[in-house]
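Deliverable D2.4 — example input (structure tokens):
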């Protein structure tokens, strides 16, 4: 039986980054992937979606060109071309990953686990000091009649054309990103969301503001609405605020969360799952079997690509701070958050100071004609430390990185307000303005 220092199962962000780092450090690493390198993020998630978001943003800018003093004669939108462009970007990035993994033994095949830290792939038995499971997740399909009539995010991202009327089931991150893209391409979009507000994990105020802004772009929202069936035709049956109703559409997209993908033999290997069916791990990402770790979507702690790679660094022995993980929704405008929501901070017993700043008072945002949005920073009143930040507006996903760094460095409200210097005119000034405006609430 061949052995290595590390066997990593899964070539997504939870697997390939740490594989490259460990190999660069002189460790013998075997990475097993059954499909294409890059995982959901590169092949069916973050990257193709962000490419389509960029095309959507270009379409919106051109549609609004006259307001910038740019005269654009009649133009057409080509969704198929946008999808082709996304495929080219994906190929380029995949080439980068392959180059990154030059010192890693990559085996293409289906890995299955056996007892005693043995992994079998393509008939060969392998073992390692540490095994990292990074097998990711797949779209959830709810148990409702006709569910298979809807496409999941995987199916949606492989479409080269999209019909006129689109119903999106689920107003979470995926649902809103797809809605924002399709509205920019002139489709009639309705989002059906079970909870009373979209983005249930986000700060309520920010989620409401994003829904309102997207509504102004023509997207219809049916909240407090549970989809109960899909009929051929295509008709969505739902229980809404006014009882049972239905909605006709040409395409239904299912975006109601994701389920873990388990490698074969997980039970035989003695690895325990939690009550939700994800792999149970401790603080170091170690499973119930010593020496076997699970990172990324498969452990259900935080379903984000960068969380998966951070957890993998933790599993390899690095003391990564997993408490500060920024996240973003790539809608137009973007929304982003890091740390606690206001609700959560209050429930945890913190006395708060909250500071807000509108992009309507930010010179750069006004110059860009993207002044719809706000920054909200939640501070602990006593220590002045940042507990959370929530942004809706231009480049929110990039701006939140500064706040994550400030939280990591334990910067206080006073330091952000008075001692740090921000360039002018930049969007980041809104962060400083929010800290200056902070009041006890
Ligand atoms: P989600 O959990 O974010 O949202 C799913 C939504 O569907 C929820 O709001 C839920 O209330 C609703 N829902 C469930 N059943 C329903 C029903 N029968 N009728 C109507 N609504 C229903 O899940 P997602 O949007 O599918 O995303 C999956 C995961 O991928 C998330 O963890 C997300 O964070 C991650 N992701 C992140 C990004 C990003 O960071 N930009 C992008 C895409 C996905």
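Example output (designed residues):
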């Amino acid at each position: 039986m061949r052995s290595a220092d590390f066997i990593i199962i899964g070539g997504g962000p939870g697997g390939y980054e740490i594989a490259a780092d460990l190999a660069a450090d002189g460790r013998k690493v075997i990475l097993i992937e059954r499909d294409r390198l890059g995982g959901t993020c590169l092949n069916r998630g973050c990257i193709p979606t962000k490419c389509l978001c960029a095309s959507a943003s270009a379409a919106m800018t051109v549609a609004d060109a006259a307001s910038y003093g740019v005269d654009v004669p009649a133009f057409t939108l080509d969704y198929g071309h946008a999808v082709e462009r996304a495929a080219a970007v994906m190929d380029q990035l995949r080439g980068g990953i392959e180059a990154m993994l030059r010192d890693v033994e990559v085996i293409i095949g289906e890995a299955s686990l056996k007892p005693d830290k043995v992994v079998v792939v393509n008939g060969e038995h392998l073992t390692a000091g540490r095994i990292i499971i990074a097998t990711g997740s797949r779209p959830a399909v709810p148990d409702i009649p006709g569910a298979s009539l809807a496409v999941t995010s995987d199916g949606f991202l492989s479409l080269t054309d999209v019909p006129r009327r689109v119903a999106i089931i689920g107003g979470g991150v995926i649902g809103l990103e797809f809605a924002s893209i399709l509205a920019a391409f002139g489709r009639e979009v309705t989002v059906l969301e079970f909870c009373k507000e979209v983005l249930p994990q986000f700060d309520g105020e920010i989620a409401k503001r994003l829904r309102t802004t997207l509504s102004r772009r023509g997207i219809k929202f049916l909240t407090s609405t549970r989809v109960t069936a899909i009929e051929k035709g295509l008709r969505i049956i739902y229980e809404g605020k006014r009882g049972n109703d239905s909605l006709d559409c040409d395409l239904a997209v299912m975006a109601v969360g994701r389920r873990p993908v388990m490698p074969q033999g997980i039970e035989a290997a003695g690895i325990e799952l939690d009550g939700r069916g994800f792999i149970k791990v401790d603080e170091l990402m170690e499973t119930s079997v010593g020496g076997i770790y699970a990172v990324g979507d498969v452990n259900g702690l935080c379903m984000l690509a960068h969380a998966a790679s951070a957890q993998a660094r933790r599993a390899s022995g690095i003391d990564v701070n997993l408490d500060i993980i920024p996240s973003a929704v790539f809608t137009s405008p973007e929304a982003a958050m890091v740390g606690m929501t206001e609700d959560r901070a209050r429930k945890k017993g913190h006395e708060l100071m909250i500071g807000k700043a509108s992009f309507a008072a930010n010179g750069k945002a006004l110059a860009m004609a993207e002044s719809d949005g706000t920054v909200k920073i939640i501070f602990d009143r006593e220590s002045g430390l940042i507990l959370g930040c929530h942004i809706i507006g231009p480049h929110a996903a990039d701006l939140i990185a500064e706040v994550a760094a400030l939280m990591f460095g334990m910067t206080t409200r006073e330091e952000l307000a008075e001692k740090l210097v921000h360039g002018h005119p930049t969007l980041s000034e809104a962060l400083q303005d929010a800290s200056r405006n902070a009041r006890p609430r």
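Residues 142, 169-175, 177, 192-195, 200, 225-227, 255-258, 303-304, 327-330 surround nicotinamide-adenine-dinucleotide (CB under 6 Å).
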